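User: Here's a protein and a ligand (iron/sulfur cluster). What would the complex look like?
Assistant: Let me lay out the input and then the predicted complex.
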Amino acid sequence: MATPHDPNKPDGYDPIVLTRTAERIVVKGNKRKYGRLSRPLRFYGGITSAQEVGCNLRCKFCFSDKPVRRPQHTGRFYSPKAVFNALNKGAKKHGHKLISASASEGTLGKQHLFELLELVDRSEYVYVLETNGITLGHDSDFARQLSRFKNLHVRVSIKGAASEEYNKLTGAVSDSYDLPYKALENLMDENVSCNVCLMVSFSTEENIKQAEKRLYDIRPGLLKSLEKEHITLFPKVATRLKNENITPNTIRHGGKIIQLNKENTYV
Ligand code: SF4
């Protein structure tokens, strides 16, 4: 039988502490670590994206393996200029108007990010900042600092539709589930263009409805651009979930959403 959780102790790691730990590994001055600097992706009708290294969560369904779990041994440090030049070259080649960095957490290394966004602002591109919302929810000044960039869109990805589900899926302390919601409030207060993405592969219908209500209460418009995300069962993801005894209700396969668990109980 599982030992009951002691309510006086945190029920997971603190993602703010993990943010600082990850930054010590993947940030050096104005440089940040990347695995690859430019590759075309099909999202948003076509986007050129760099593969960054380092994250402040450890989602068990994450497809990005080494950049998240072995940041010390993955990638190299690049300046904002080097990253921008590579993205510019790739976007020109593929006719993309959108550029981004993905596969890890986009807000690590503020100086690097701000210098990169300054370069983007002098170009014709829009930069999609991919984030789990932890840092932007924790530090309300961060959203204000982002508000000066005009060619920026922030995509906040919430890892699960309820705090207990988030805790099981990420291993992070349950309380930190509030941070991405706070991030959305901060971004909207500062008029930063943003939208939200909700991981629903492990969620009950009821939890999804409650998460939608919470988003609606922040700003009804958030529901219009809400993306519901379903995991893709890459072999490493499938093994990790199996080892953790976690079963998704839905998966994405060949462009379709497949229902696996008809009883619709989460994790
Ligand atoms: S926040 Fe994103 S990159 Fe980080 S572990 Fe979770 S899914 Fe992976």
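Summary: Residues 106 and 238 are 25 Å apart (CA to CA).
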